[in-house]
Every structure is written in structure tokens, then in C-alpha cells.
LacI family DNA-binding transcriptional regulator
Amino acid sequence: MGNPSMADVARAAGVSAQTVSRVFRESPNVSPDTRRRVLAAVDELGYRFNNAARTLSSGRSRTIGLVLLQSGGYYSRSAVTAGVEAAAGEAGYAVSIATIAALDTGLMERSLSKLADQGVEGIVIAVPLIFATPRMEDITRDIPTVTLDGSRTAGASVLGIDQREAGRVATQHLLDLGHRQVWHVSGPDEWIEARQRRQGWQDCLTAAGIEPPPPLEGDWSPESGYRQGQIVAMIPDVTAIFAASDEMAFGVVRALRERGRAVPDDVSIVGVDDIALAAYCSPPLTTVRQDFYRFGAAAVGLLLEGAGAADSLVPASLSVRDSTAPPRGH
Amino acid sequence: MGNPSMADVARAAGVSAQTVSRVFRESPNVSPDTRRRVLAAVDELGYRFNNAARTLSSGRSRTIGLVLLQSGGYYSRSAVTAGVEAAAGEAGYAVSIATIAALDTGLMERSLSKLADQGVEGIVIAVPLIFATPRMEDITRDIPTVTLDGSRTAGASVLGIDQREAGRVATQHLLDLGHRQVWHVSGPDEWIEARQRRQGWQDCLTAAGIEPPPPLEGDWSPESGYRQGQIVAMIPDVTAIFAASDEMAFGVVRALRERGRAVPDDVSIVGVDDIALAAYCSPPLTTVRQDFYRFGAAAVGLLLEGAGAADSLVPASLSVRDSTAPPRGH
DNA sequence: GTTATAGATGTCATCGATAACATCTATGCT
DNA sequence: AGCATAGATGTTATCGATGACATCTATAAC
């Protein structure tokens, strides 16, 4: 009845089940003729490999887990995801996803548990994980884990894009144009990316002998950028703003314009992400781009090769467009 | 050595493995006291459930597969994905993803195979699947499958958002404003969504006694919208355009403006998706919104309940903003 | 001509949970 | 008291592939 098993294939091909197994695992020690016969039988019976059985007997599931935040709003995460999937697929691994609805420790623990139950051989955590609970560490102790953050989980490799670099590059660009002060609309404080970008901005200003103004915190969304933009617009003398994401940047632009501040004539703005629309909205946005796709792929590489936790630094490149200019009268 | 198994837990709790199993499956026939003892043992031993073993012995993997297109560019798909994940998670199902790099029959077959090997109990196909090959049908014959398309696979349920409605709503809005003709920048022809939206546009025009102009085909990206926009900008008398996605719409806007055509004063534009940026870019875009998240969730519901292939129609609502206006001198 | 040796193949126990079936209490009812 | 019945628990075989080990050729080396 049920689906044919290796034993059935073996019978049909006149060999042992073990040989069929060898054919599937591409063991070198199978004669071409036998292989052909086996494959023919597979085809004829419509045999389908049973991954659960392999996992059980071999202890290897050939699956990696990916922890995501449910709200898809945040751009770079989805690029990371694509990279993870691609790299995993290429290495013959399946990807099982666990999304968490919010940044909550309990939800995180549950997601990790679920993945562990599935026997994943590695976990990529693509949400900001500020602190790890003992239970999380219990799980990640047994499973190679990469967190795409600067955060530390005991035993978890950490692959960090140095987001400070992004903040530094953006801020320096504005300073180079002649601006004397740069304001910052940051991402939510729970996000390491947000904190790092803010740090980069701060460092850059400090290095230039400028006292950083208080940062304004958004939530990555255009709406939040708009709200913070309304505040900035009420402050005189603001000529340059670094927004931690393109979406927020456009929100800021809108708020400024509504208050009669032109971009880039009155105020220059730099974003981060280089989303597809950055070049096509108005004004085309100057923004910092980083290769998150490759980053995701790197995470998988780190996982599967078990290489040491090399904190890889993905370079940040600036796409200069029309949202930045020298300050008036410069 | 290895991880503790149910047998180990059973020994520690002084019960049989079967009872431990019952505790996990929340069988009603376990005394509260026994349950407590078992859970205590689980905790003490750090026992972790082995999903592969369950799958093998019960034949149920509690996993569903999701087929995606690798390029994350297309908005509504990611919303669908979120819906699928959420609904599956709620029902206690894991989600395994298989991404395909391009719309290619071979890649599709391989992805389906991979999911089938994993023993998924259902498959959600979230890429346009124009035609099904015999091999695909072989696979989907045994596994409940929902395609989020109008496409037909023998035996696969089809959950269709009626995208024609989106096209109709957008076009009608423009006609209502007084425009005498509406041009269309469509998505790629391989995408059912693209074809349906185009159909809706066509139908609407025809119903109004207007002969539809030739549609211009984009690829959902802002770039493609820009290219097609450049062409439209060279045609005199164009006063209204319906773009099949918001990103393309903004590309069109840019091209028009560069050629001195103001939006909405000279040309009105409607998009589809209502992406977060739609309200914050310039001009705020009039667009058609559909609840793709719910759509994804519905797909999972259909899969798990095995209900008949109810072609559910998600209503399309129009968000009127500033990219549309009556034609000049109206 | 023999002995090494690698290659091709087979046998059998095993991974861990579960389905199916068997027992063994309590409790209620006549 | 005697029996039916539901609830709680234990036993055993089983899912399908694989690891470890055994066997059996050919060919190479001496």
C-alpha cells in the first residue's frame, strides 16, 4: 500500500536496500550498471525519498532553521533571508522557518525549541537578540547557531555586519559636504543594527569635534520617519539628517517638505539600505548600501563549515543621489 | 551519550514510553499526577522531542512546504508569506521553504520534489505556475496543494485572489475622475496576477466603450516602470495610467516628471499594493490594496482543513491619495 | 600461482516515537 | 455481590534509511 520504500526499490532492481541507499548518497562504490538499474526501478515505482527516516537513522536532518521577525517591514532582513535560502539550498540543505511575532524572549525560546525539535543542524537567528536566556543557551549549546548581530549568546557564532560603518559613512558624507551638524533618526533601540548605526554616527561626529544632538527614535517605518521629521522640522538650523533606513528617510522628507523645508536645498538627508525605490522616489535618495544577501549566505557558510566565528565585515558603499547637497551659502 | 529519548524519560518518571508519548500528544487519558511526573523528568533530563521519529512512525510531519520566488522584489508575495507562516505556526505546523531562482519548470519540479521528500503534509505554491508538468502533477497528486493563482494543476486546490477586481477598481476610479482613456503598465506576462490585473483594466475600459491601448509590460521593478514611463511620456494626450504595482508606478512618475509632465496635474497614476512608502513618497500614491496576509493564512486553512477548493475572493479597496485628479480643463 | 587490496554488494541491528492491542484498576449500576 | 465500563497504563511491532560489519569478486603485486 503506502509509498514504496527503499526495500521495494531494492527488490525491483534485484539488489539490497543498502545498495539503493548508496546510490542515493552517491557513494563511489556502486557499479554504473547497478546504479542504472536502481534508478530505473526508482522511476518505475515512483519512489520518493523519506527524509524523516534518514534523519532518524543518521542523525542528520540536512535542515537549517531560520528565525525571523514576522513583520516583514524591515528591508535588510528580507535580503538576508534570500541569501540564507540560496546558500542553504545550494548545499543541499532545507530551510525551516520560525517567525516570531514580536521581540519577546518567550516567543524566541519557543521558536528555538520548535526548530530544535525538528532536528535542525544549524540555526540562523535573523532577529535582534539583545540578551539570551538560559533556556536559549541550553538549546544553542547543542546546535551551531549564528546570530546576525553583535549580540552574544554563549556558544553562538556571531556574524556581524559592522553597521557602525554604515553610520560613519553616511555621516562623514554629510560633513564632507560642509554641514556643521548632523541629526539622526534611528531605528528602535532593541535592534542592534539601530544601535550600531547610531554609534557610527556618534563616533563620526565626535571625531570631528562635534557634539551629537539627541537622536530621534523611529521604528523603521515611513510613518515613524514622518513623525520624527515633523519634530526636526521645528528645530531651526537643521541642515543635515542621517536616517537609519530609506523608508524612514522618505518619511522625514515628506514631513520637512510639508513644513516648507526643501530637500536637499534646505536639508540634506541620507538613508540606509538602498531599496529599489530609493533611486526613483523624489528626490532620489542618497543612501548607504550593504550586501545583505551575501551576508545571509555567509551565515550559512559559517554554520555548515563550522569555521570559527569570523566576524565578517561587509563593506558599506555610499550611493550618492540628489537628497544631499552642501548647506546653503557654502 | 546522545540525547535522552522518551524511553529515558519514561524510566526516570517510572512510567512507560507510551505514557510519555501520551503526555506530549495531550491525550486526555493521563492522570494529572503522572503528567506532572513526566514533565518533571523531561525538564530534569533536558529531553527534546524528536520530530523525525514522530514523522516516521506516524506518517505525519506537521510541516507544510512553501514555494517562493527567490527575488523578493514582488511585494504581495512577501505579505502572503507572512500570512502562511503565521497561520501554519498557529496550527502547530512548521514551514519549510523552497525558493526557486527563476520561473523555470525544472526548478519548480526540483523544489516540489525536495518538499515531498521532507514529507510535507501540504504545499503552498506562491509563484505563478503557468502550466504544470506531469512530474509536478505526480507530486501534487499525493500532497494537498494550494496554488495562489488562477492556474490549474490537476488536483491542486486553487485559491485565487481575483486580481481582475484590482484592475477594474483602479481603472474605474480614473474613468470616474473624467479621464477618457487609461494606459496600463503591466507586470510580466508569466505572472497570473499581471494578466488578471490587465484583464480587469481591459474589461473596465471595454465596458465603458473605450478601446484599450496596447499595454506596456514591466517586471514589477521601479526601473521597469521608469523605462515604460519614458515611452508613455512621448505619447501625447496620455492623461491617466494604471500601473500594476506601486514600485512601477513610482518609476513611471519619475519618467513623466523628467519629461515635464506633472503628476497628477497632467497625468494621473494609480498603483497596486499600497506599500508602506506609497503614502510617503511624492506624490502620495493612489493605489489599490488587498489583504494578502489574510490570503496567505486562508491558503493554509484550505490546506489543513482539506475544505473544497473555495476560490476565495479578497476584496480590493482603493486608497485615494494625491497621484490622481480630474484631467486638465475638466 | 598466491597473496594483498580495493571495489561491489549484502546482513542485521538500530535510530525514537507511535499505532494497535492488551491489561489492569476504580467506579457505578442492577 | 457481580458485572459492565471508562480511564489509566503497559507491550510489542513497526515506520524507512543507515552505520557497522561481513562477504565476495576482480585485479595488482610479488
The mean pLDDT of chain B is 89. The domain at 61-158 of chain B is CATH 3.40.50.2300 (Rossmann fold).
